[in-house]
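lol ok so funny story. i was supposed to be doing the assay writeup but got distracted and ended up predicting the structure for this chain instead. priorities right. anyway since i did it might as well share w the group, maybe its usefull for someone
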Amino acid sequence: MKTNFQLTGVLICCVAFTLSCQKDDEVQPQNDLDKFFISTVLAHNTNYTDRTWYVGTFKDLSITDYTLTRATQRPDDVMSMVKSYKDFVFVLPYNRDKLMKKYKRQADGSLSDEGGMVIPEVTRVRGMVIESDTKGYLSLLDSGKIAVFNPTTMQMLGYIDLQSYAIGGDLDRSPDPSVLLLRNNKLYVACMQKMPVMPASSNWRAEILIIDLANGNAITSVTDNRTSTAGSFEDFKSMFFDESGDLYVYCKGNAGSNIPGGFLRIKNGQTTFDPTYFFDIANYNVPLLPGNKISDLLHMQYANNGIVYSTGHVRSLGGSWIDKAYACSKLDLNSKIISRLDLPYSNGFAGSVLSYQNKIYWGLTATAGVGIYQYDPASNTASARPVITTEGDAFQIEAFE
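and the output, tada:
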């Protein structure tokens, strides 16, 4: 009996020790996981017609170089967007490939392949939000629908049909949903209402759809004639809430039809655009810029206190994505002022911006170097060269939540 008791005690200790080790193994790697993920394009010729896209992670902002050693090649050669949820990274299909890929960050800095999901009714996905482990939403630009899916099992659950909200005439069957936001059981959908032969702009009024998920997906349409093309092809962060709960959406407008681009606002608790507010960025004179104009915004990041940091297109410097014609700027939504920042011009395959721990980080492909630059709002100082050099142009830089 004594022997059995001693043996039982040893077994209990072993089990406790094993469980303790397992718990440590489960928890400890979380502290070592990379804090940031990055989407880069590696050009194989000077005009970027031969290029490869990658998604990867990096540890923190103390590194000096980011390479593609552990990065994963993306499934197509176009600028499909990348989004994270918990430890997972999703690569959204853009044009040729209808497969949405899912990866998981690992302790060694790699991304493990967690499978994918075919989206049968889509040519481009321009927005994604995840409500829970079992439900997420994707905006299907040309299909005029929101896809509902399970981010854990990567299975389609259904669709929310938006086709009746197209306002582009008889030939247009889609309001072209793009950027998505989720707040208080309401799904906010920026609609580009793009023209069939003009895939990046519209002549039709700006529109946001508010879907009440707790009330049978009842939809409220919010429109405004002062601008057009709500949301951005290139940035999930072109629609956001401020600290007061006011919703801002960047609208690209249509330079060809002299429809200005800028920001509209829906005040907290309202379901109409604020008639007193429109920040016309296209006609604002920006000091220290060639031509003094930013025609439209590429990437943007709301920081705080009404301040947005963005990379804007300076058309007087060139009209192509390979031109170094994108300027780093600070936009004050309250005073409607745009200020050029002392950072180098970038091409359009980079220009990403991230706000993190009171600093602003820019992914720039510039004459001074390719990589991540730092701007300190408190001292209004910027790095002259990259604080992190990157292998490839940084199209997206984001922090895991």
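The radius of gyration is 23 Å. DSSP finds one helix and 30 strands in the chain.
back to the writeup now i swear
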